[in-house]
Every structure is written in structure tokens, then in C-alpha cells.
């Protein structure tokens, strides 16, 4: 593999459980009250060291959304998803933000 | 100016003669001096429909055109030819007053100069005064040098001061009176009475007076050089070493001036492994040759820095710090010192014996991702905090920070030390000017793919006219530096192209390294393969960013390339 480019963050951070690469800062946390298949999930404004997969429409508890899965750059595991489009007005605030599953995060 | 006795003249010309509004048309066969038929032919062809302008676009005024041709003839030494042209066309290079003025200056007849100056065309008040000042200054200095102090004083009093031009200069001139004539030349920075100083006075006056009165020297040569320059810059594929362009046809290089063909694919076993350096415990991520090619610096991914000697293959020194996590290093051009920086937020400067010479630390010093030093050793560039480029001037100890919006993956500086290239995660390459004090927008190059890996790019070609970069889609991208146009996309690799390096001495060759475990050497497509490649596979000196896998050994199979390839 070539040399991976990983961004290092300062302060209190969440990292990927498998490869310990930094994913997001605590300051970027928006909400802790999300759920996914495996349990709890957090909503963040920005995350780093992830790459985005293909866009698809999914039906979620809050309605239909267009989301794309995100993968950790170094270990290729799915760590959550990104909201691209929210079809309901009340859910518009999520657009452009990222969900990271609690299961995939450290600490 | 009759000409009606010339039977041979074409009817077109005779018509023109009858029109009084036109200026003097070219009268080919009028003069008796050497005006041959060819001159008449030329004269006829120059006169286009409109007698005022020349050229297919009608942008060149005929009077000006003829005048600068005459000037070129005179300056080349063809006095007779120039005089003939003046007679034939009836357009004089300079009016008689100006002619007189020039001769007076060169002969040193200052009073006549002053008188003629007022006769030369219409001048603005300030220009007239400034010109007068220059002439009188010369007169003053010459009389001082001849130790004719009274005359000089007289000039200063009665002629220079009343002008009211620049009193500080007048004071300076007054101070020269008390100098010895020998010191005068040094103090006034004046070359002494004689042709040389008078010639330079003439040039100064030329710059002052409007160009229609006195045509600036060497005007035709200047215009042609400007045109050649424009052609050269417009030619996107220009990559030749010779500087003299032909005047006969417009200059346009064809596409085969840039390397587009793979000359050689270097795989794992085809190069002779000279040494295997072991010792790093983490993947080796950065390699730098010393400027004299005898030593190699290697740097792990957040690890120690090791210095290796090429001739013996031994590790000369290991540079360690308590929490060492160095990510990159750069040599100084003298080959005796280098800097290294890393995640512990400090930049250290070391020498070859292992002593730490200097350290830049502090709370403000953020994490360093990449380092580079310009080839003249004056600036140190570093990438801090993923998004900032810090250009630190080593002599003046000042710094300048450029902020980018997206994280930067790699950095490279051009060999002339003026430009730097950064690759961004957002799939753009930005070109910044180091020396410019203004914060201009950078030039941007797009088209390649980048997102996860560190991809390196570099400058290439004569005059660093090309930007070449690797990409995650296994192709090599070449852009033209000035207009940002994507010139070529080269395929051939089957994995991410991590790093490229252009041969510093041969502008038609570069190398690229990729994740498919090969190195490719690229050259021109229509040249036969040069023999040297068969016997001595190896990469050029500039190729100091090697693809590194997750191995613990560094495959040391690069020998310095001979620079005497064709």
C-alpha cells in the first residue's frame, strides 16, 4: 500500500476501534441520541480520515433519507454513514452531517 | 515630388499621387542611389490599400514602421542604407532639430543644446525643465572636472537654480564644487567627460522625451524579442533546451516534446540490489538523498531518523529524541545539516555528527507533516496542522503562513526555490509563489484522484514549465504550469502512483513509482531508446521519494544516475 494520509486531531478525540486512527473531536458532537442496528450512534458535524461510499436511499425511524456509508481510511471498516439528503423538512438539519456508530469508536 | 515622368509606375501609385490627403507614398524609382527594382517591388508590396497603415490587421502605422526600420539600419552600421531609406520614403528618423540636438550633445556644445531643446517639438513644461536640468547638469560636471570652477558656479547660479527642479539635487551639485576633480567621479557616480557619459546622457534624455520625437534605442529588436517571448509562452509543449528561436516561422512545439512513453519498467528483481538497510522498526516513509549523493536520510512513519552512508552501507547515526515521532526531513544545500520535524511539534536542525544545532519549539509550533528547504537554503517550508503552510525565512527569522482550506498531503519546492506545490486531499494541486509578498490566489490543477494516500507531485521540464503528479487511479497526470491545462494523462501502472520525479538534467525523462511494485521510466515517444538504459538501470538523483511498502527493510537499489545522458 502507499503511504496513507491520516489527519491527526488534537484535544479529546474519538478514534476507530480497530486501527486507532482519529475520527472526530468531542467538540464536533451534536447529539448522542441516535440509534443504529448495533446500538447507539452519535451525530457529528465533521469527521476525518473517512471515505464515502455510494449513495442510497434508506428508510429510517425518522423517515426516508439519502445516505452514504463511510469507511475508515486505514482499516476499511464501516464506521457509520453520512446524511446527504433528508426528504422531510424536520430532518433537514442532518444534511451534511455524519453518524458514527458507538460500537466502532474508542473511548 | 513629381514622379509623373516614371512610366513604369503601376496605375495604383499614380492614383495615389493625385490624392493630396495621403502622405508621401513609397516612390520606388525616384532616387538615383542604388534603388533597384527589388526595392521598388518591396515598396509596392508594403503600400497596402490604406497608405497610412501596414500589415494585414492595419495596426501598424507606416510612418512609425519606417522610422524604426531606419533606426535598426543605422544601429547595425548601415549608414548608407539608412540614408537611402530616408530619402526614398521621405520619412526621416529624426527631425533636423533632433539631429542637431544629438550632435550637439555628443560634441559637448551645451549652449546650442539648450537652444535646440526649445525647438524640438512641443514639450510639456515639466519634461522641458527636466531635460534642461539633465543637460545643464552634464555641462556643470564637465566644467568641474576641467577644474573650471567659475564657469561651473556660473552655470549653477544662473541656469540650474532658476529652473526650480529638485532643490535637493541642486544642493548635491553645489556640494560637488568643494571636491577634488578626482573624487568627483566617484562621488557623483559619473563616468567623466567623454563619449560614454554623453551617450548615457542621451539615453536618459530619450527616456524623458516623448518617443515620437526621439525613437528609443533598439526598438525593433525589442519588439521582435517580445513577440518571440509571447510565442514561447503560448507554446504549451515547449520543452527544449535551446533558447534561440527561429524568426522564419511561428514557434510551436509538438506534443512529442514531453515524455509520454514508458521507456522502462523496473520491477523488483531487475535492479541490482546494492544494499539492504535494516534498522527501522516501523515502515519507512521518507527518504532523502544528500545534495552530494553520498548519504541517505531515512525516516520512519513517526519514528527515528537514520543517516546511512552509501559507500559502506552502514548506518552512521541515529537521531533520537525522547518521544521521537519524526515524519519528514530535509537537507540543507550545503549537505552538512538537515532539519527534521514530526508529530511532537518541534523542528530540529542536526549536523552529521549527531549534534542538535537548533530547535524550534514552543506552544505555537503545531504538528509538522512535511518539510522542505529551498535550494538556496534561505527558506524552510513546513506543513503544520494539515492545513497551514509555514514559510520560514532562515536568514531574517521571519515567517509567513499560508492557509489552505483542505488538508495538505505533500509538499515540494521547485529547484529555483521560488515556487512550491502542495497536493490537497480535495484532489487539487496548488502552486504558490514563495517570494511574493502579496497573497495572490494560487494556480490550481485538477483532474487527478486523491483521497486516502500521500501522493507526491513535482515540477519538470525546462524552466519548470510542467507539473506532474501521481494519482490513485494508476495514471500520471501532466499539466502545463502557466495555463493550468491538463496536457496528458499517462497510463501504464496498475496501482496507485505514489510519487513522481523529473530528471533534473534531462528534461525529457521522468520516473514514477507505484503500488504495483514497479518503477517506470518515461521518455519521449519518437526517440529511439538510448543505449544507456539497457546497461545501467537506475533512477535519477532527483528521485528521492521512493515508494515504501510496509516493509521493514529499505530496498537500496538506487544508484546516482549519470548525468551525461543525451
From TrEMBL, chain A:
Keywords: Metal-binding, Zinc. This is Protein yippee-like. Belongs to the yippee family. Residues 12-107 form the Yippee domain. InterPro entries: Yippee (IPR034751), Yippee/Mis18/Cereblon (IPR004910), Yippee_fam (IPR039058). GO terms for molecular function: metal ion binding. It comes from Physcomitrium patens. The keyword S-adenosyl-L-methionine does not apply. It comes from the Eukaryota. Pfam families: Yippee-Mis18. The gene is LOC112289913.
Amino acid at each position: 500500500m502507499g503511504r496513507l494520509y491520516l489527519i491527526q486531531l488534537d484535544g479529546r478525540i474519538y478514534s476507530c476501534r480497530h486501527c486507532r486512527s482519529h475520527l472526530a473531536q468531542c467538540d464536533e458532537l451534536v447529539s448522542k441520541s441516535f440509534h443504529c442496528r448495533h446500538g447507539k450512534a452519535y451525530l457529528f458535524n465533521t469527521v476525518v480520515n473517512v471515505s464515502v461510499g455510494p449513495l442510497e436511499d434508506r428508510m429510517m425511524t425518522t423517515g426516508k433519507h439519502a445516505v452514504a456509508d463511510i469507511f475508515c481510511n486505514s482499516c476499511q471498516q464501516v464506521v457509520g454513514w453520512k446524511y446527504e439528503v433528508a426528504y422531510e423538512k424536520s430532518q433537514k438539519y442532518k444534511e451534511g452531517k455524519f453518524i458514527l456508530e458507538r460500537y466502532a469508536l474508542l473511548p | 515630388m513629381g514622379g509623373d515622368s516614371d512610366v513604369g509606375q503601376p496605375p495604383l501609385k499614380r492614383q495615389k499621387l493625385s490624392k493630396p490627403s495621403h502622405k508621401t507614398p513609397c516612390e520606388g524609382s525616384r532616387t538615383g542611389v542604388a534603388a533597384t527594382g527589388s526595392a521598388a517591388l518591396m515598396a509596392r508590396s508594403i503600400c497596402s490599400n490604406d497608405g497610412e497603415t501596414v500589415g494585414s490587421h492595419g495596426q501598424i502605422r507606416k510612418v512609425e514602421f519606417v522610422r524604426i526600420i531606419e533606426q535598426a539600419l543605422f544601429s547595425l552600421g548601415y549608414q548608407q542604407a539608412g540614408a537611402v531609406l530616408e530619402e526614398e520614403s521621405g520619412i526621416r528618423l529624426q527631425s533636423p532639430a533632433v539631429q542637431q540636438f544629438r550632435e550637439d550633445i555628443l560634441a559637448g556644445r551645451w549652449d546650442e543644446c539648450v537652444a535646440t531643446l526649445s525647438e524640438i517639438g512641443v514639450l510639456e513644461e515639466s519634461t522641458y525643465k527636466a531635460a534642461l536640468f539633465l543637460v545643464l547638469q552634464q555641462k556643470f560636471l564637465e566644467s568641474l572636472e576641467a577644474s573650471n570652477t567659475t564657469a561651473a558656479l556660473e552655470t549653477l547660479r544662473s541656469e540650474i537654480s532658476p529652473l526650480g527642479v529638485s532643490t535637493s539635487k541642486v544642493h548635491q551639485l553645489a556640494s560637488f564644487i568643494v571636491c577634488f576633480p578626482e573624487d568627483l567621479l566617484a562621488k557623483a557616480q559619473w563616468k567623466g567627460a567623454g563619449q560614454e557619459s554623453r551617450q548615457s546622457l542621451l539615453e536618459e534624455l530619450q527616456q524623458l522625451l516623448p518617443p515620437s520625437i526621439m525613437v528609443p534605442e533598439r526598438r525593433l529588436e525589442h519588439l521582435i524579442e517580445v513577440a518571440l517571448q509571447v510565442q514561447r509562452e503560448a507554446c504549451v509543449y515547449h520543452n527544449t533546451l535551446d533558447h534561440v528561436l527561429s524568426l522564419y516561422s511561428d514557434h510551436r512545439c509538438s506534443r512529442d516534446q514531453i515524455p509520454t512513453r514508458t521507456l522502462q519498467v523496473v520491477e523488483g528483481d531487475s535492479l541490482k540490489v546494492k544494499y539492504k538497510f535494516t534498522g527501522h522498526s516501523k515502515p519507512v516513509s521518507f527518504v532523502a538523498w544528500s545534495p552530494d549523493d553520498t548519504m541517505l536520510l531515512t525516516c520512519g512513519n513517526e519514528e527515528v531518523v537514520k543517516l546511512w552512508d552509501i559507500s559502506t552501507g552502514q548506518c552512521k547515526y541515529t537521531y533520537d529524541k525522547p518521544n521521537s515521532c519524526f515524519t519528514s526531513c530535509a537537507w540543507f544545500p550545503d549537505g552538512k545539516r538537515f532539519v527534521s520535524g514530526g508529530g511532537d511539534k518541534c523542528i530540529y536542525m542536526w549536523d552529521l555528527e549527531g549534534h542538535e544545532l537548533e530547535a524550534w519549539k514552543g506552544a505555537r509550533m503545531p504538528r509538522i507533516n512535511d518539510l522542505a528547504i529551498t535550494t538556496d537554503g534561505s527558506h524552510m517550508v513546513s506543513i503544520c496542522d494539515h492545513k497551514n503552510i509555514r514559510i520560514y525565512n532562515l536568514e531574517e527569522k521571519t515567517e509567513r503562513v499560508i492557509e489552505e482550506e483542505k488538508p495538505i498531503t505533500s509538499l515540494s519546492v521547485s529547484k529555483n526555490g521560488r515556487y512550491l506545490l502542495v497536493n490537497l486531499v480535495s484532489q487539487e494541486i496548488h502552486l504558490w509563489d514563495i517570494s511574493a509578498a502579496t497573497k495572490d490566489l494560487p494556480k490550481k490543477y485538477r483532474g487527478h484522484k486523491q483521497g486516502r494516500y500521500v501522493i507526491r507531485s513535482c515540477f519538470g521540464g525546462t524552466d519548470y514549465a510542467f507539473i506532474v503528479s501521481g494519482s490513485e487511479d494508476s495514471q500520471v497526470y501532466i499539466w502545463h504550469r502557466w495555463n493550468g491545462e491538463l496536457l496528458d494523462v499517462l497510463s501504464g501502472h496498475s496501482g496507485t502512483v505514489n510519487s513522481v520525479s523529473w530528471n533534473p538534467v534531462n528534461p525529457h525523462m521522468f520516473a514514477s513509482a507505484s503500488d504495483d511494485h514497479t518503477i517506470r521510466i518515461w521518455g519521449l515517444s519518437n526517440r529511439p531508446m538510448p543505449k544507456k538504459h539497457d546497461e545501467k538501470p537506475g533512477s535519477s538523483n532527483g528521485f528521492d521519494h521512493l515508494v515504501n511498502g510496509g516493509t521493514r527493510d529499505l530496498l537500496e537499489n538506487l544508484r546516482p544516475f549519470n548525468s551525461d545522458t543525451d
